[in-house]
Design brief:
Length: 595
């Protein structure tokens, strides 16, 4: 590995900082982790990570990165009694997303491997591995007070720190400083003081409040490794139960949109009584209680957009929750921190020049995937206030259909889990084989109408739905044919006057086109690159038509999926999920185009 500098300093030694340090150790002669806590020698909670006392689940992608960075890590964890779901047996999980309960029987093929260590054990195991790296040292019990710069303020040269015991300030010089001090990071303030301004913030207020209770139980009354009942429209409450190592387990209940969570264990059980599985509540009543009920509040999802800053000093990176902290119920934070560590490694492999800009841009692409999942899921709840752009409404409508399919189809359930555990990108749900199953599952799902209202009525509805769907498919087909024949006017005539079309990605054609004038502009830009669209499959469900296609433009070909929403025989919304990297190559990047 090529050395990029003498000394890298990482501020904060929680998951984000530890994983950054692991990667930096390959590229710098020395790495120092500065941490305000005196770190426990065993798997214990500590003050600087108060969330460690609450329910934590690391996603399968996070675990696979840990295994990559620390070979043998998975075996080590399972050797310490950590529960592992690796056989796809759906009866051992109980997940409910948006009111749709994932199938509870059968085997999900190609399911992700889910490991369930408690947070203190996970962090301690990673810390032990990082401590064993010869060129990494820990400066514990030290508070970071500020950053140091060159006289022209163009480069960060280290950090000012103060030992908690000695109470005097010292400096740590470095070629690279990485801020991993979590959600409370002061880098925005430091940057403002240095004249760079603060990063813009994307924020969605969720007013999440949790209550968790750690327990010990040797009973096997609960077979499930993990129970996660996420909030659903009309019920912004959640329930979680995880079996951790050494017969420990954790119960969690939570609320969103500002409601108060219960404060005592007995109230937690009452609170969940009408939606949580009774056998789990019974098991909790019989379990040994470890410590008290722990509470925590998370006001919002917050993403600090360092990737969008016009000016940045050299020699400074920010990772983990300090950049983006998510609504934690989706369990993404540690995995995103792990993904960022791999991005950092890839950026350092390419060289040391312009590292901050390259890192922030590359990591933003990864963060965006998790951000859209969290914010999209939160905004699927009417109780959460916030703008719901058309692209989100379409993807939420699609996720709703996929979730319905996960109730009955183990293949869709397995693929859905691979996406939610961040092993696969969301686009994998748009593969024709999955789309077909999603469409079929809508019919297999039991009709919600009461029996006396009659078979007759539901059959009638289905028939009408099918007829309409077929008409919608015909109309959509005509649109593709017109576009293929170069008759843009005919293609446009199928759209409502206020129709919107969103093209995913950061390419020059990415974005939302509103009204026929802008749609015409999109078609023209596609035509300029001799874009040809070969349709593969048309799948209709009510007002929605999904079309899988193969798009050729600028000499390249890639699969794409287009989703159309139709009303009264006109397309009112469309969304294209294409190969965004190819689009950037062929049409150019939006950022470059914007200058
Ligand atoms: C209630 C809750 C539940 C969560 N559940 C999950 C989950 O299930 N799955 C998941 O993946 N993620 C979860 N997360 C998120 C997860 O905890 C974080 O994403 C993860 O810890 C990575 O964060 P980090 O290392 O960037 O920051 P943090 O974990 O916040 O660590 C910051 C570190 O910096 C140190 N520090 C701070 N300021 C200073 C200073 N001035 N000087 C020196 N040191 C300093 C702190 O002591 C600490 O060690 C949850 C978060 C919360 C709040």
């Amino acid at each position: 590995m090529k050395i990029r500098g003498d000394h890298a300093v990482v501020l904060g030694a929680s998951m984000g900082g530890l994983l950054a340090a692991r990667v930096l150790a390959d590229f710098y002669e020395r790495v120092t982790l500065v941490e305000r806590d005196t770190l426990p020698t065993g798997p214990e909670n500590r003050r600087g990570v108060p969330q460690g006392r609450l329910i934590h689940v690391i996603q399968a992608r996070g675990i696979s990165i840990l295994e990559e960075l620390f070979p043998g890590f998975v075996a080590e964890l399972t050797g310490m009694g950590v529960e592992c779901w690796d056989d796809g047996d759906l009866s051992k999980l109980h997940l409910s997303v948006g009111g749709h309960q994932l199938l509870r029987s059968g085997i999900a093929p190609d399911a992700p491997v889910v490991l369930l260590p408690s947070r203190p054990l996970l962090e301690w195991s990673v810390r032990q591995r990082v401590k064993a790296i010869p060129n990494v040292t820990f400066l514990e019990g030290h508070d970071v007070l500020g950053l140091m710069t060159t006289p022209d303020l163009a480069r960060i040269t280290g950090a000012r720190v103060a030992g908690r015991a000695e109470d005097h300030e010292t400096t740590v010089t470095a070629d690279l400083v990485v801020d991993a001090t979590g959600r409370g990071s002061r880098t925005p303030v430091f940057l403002e003081q240095l004249g760079y301004g603060r990063p813009a913030e994307d924020e969605l207020v969720v007013q999440l409040a949790y209550a968790c209770q750690l327990l010990r139980s040797t009973s096997n009354a609960v077979r499930e490794h993990l129970i996660a009942l996420f909030p659903e429209p009309g019920r912004p409450k959640m329930f979680g139960f995880v079996r951790y190592e050494n017969d420990t387990c954790m119960l969690a209940v939570g609320t969103m949109a500002g409601a108060e969570p219960p404060s005592r264990l007995v109230d937690m059980l009452d609170y969940a009584a009408d939606f949580a599985p009774p056998h789990v509540l019974d098991a909790v009543r019989d379990a040994e209680i470890i410590g008290g009920v722990v509470h925590h509040r998370v006001p919002s999802n917050r993403w600090r957009r360092y990737d969008k800053m016009r000016r940045l000093p050299d020699g400074l990176l920010v990772v983990g929750d300090a950049v983006c902290s998510f609504n934690p119920i989706y369990g993404q934070g540690m995995t995103v921190a792990a993904i960022e560590a791999t991005v950092l490694r890839d950026c350092l492999r390419q060289g040391g020049d312009g590292l901050p800009r390259r890192f922030f841009r590359a990591s933003a692409k990864k963060i965006r995937v998790a951000w859209q999942t969290a914010v999209g899921s939160d905004l699927a709840l009417p109780e959460v206030a916030g703008p719901r752009p058309i692209s989100m409404r379409i993807s939420n409508a699609f996720v709703e259909r996929v979730s319905i399919a996960t109730e009955v189809d183990p293949v869709v359930a397995g693929q859905f889990m691979r996406v939610t555990t961040m092993v696969d990108p969301p686009g994998r749900l748009l593969r024709p084989s999955i789309l077909l199953r999603v469409m079929r599952a809508q019919r297999r799902r039991p009709a919600p109408t009461p029996p006396e209202a009659g078979r007759h009525r539901s059959e009638e509805t289905e028939e009408r739905g099918t007829q309409l769907s077929n008409q919608n498919i015909e109309l959509t087909k005509r649109g593709y044919e017109a576009f293929g024949a170069g008759d843009l006017e005919a293609a446009l005539s199928l759209f409502d006057d206020s129709a919107e079309w969103t093209v995913n990605g950061e390419s020059a054609i990415g974005g939302t086109y509103r009204g026929k004038t802008e749609l015409a502009e999109l078609f023209m830009r596609l035509a300029e690159k001799s874009t040809q669209v070969e349709t593969k499959q048309f799948l209709a469900d009510g007002n929605f038509v999904m079309v899988t296609t193969e798009v050729t433009a600028g000499g390249e070909t890639a699969p794409e999926a287009d989703v159309f929403e139709l009303r009264d025989g006109k397309v009112v919304r469309a969304h294209s999920f294409g190969d965004t990297a190819m689009q950037e190559r062929v049409f150019g990047s939006k950022r470059v185009a914007a200058g």
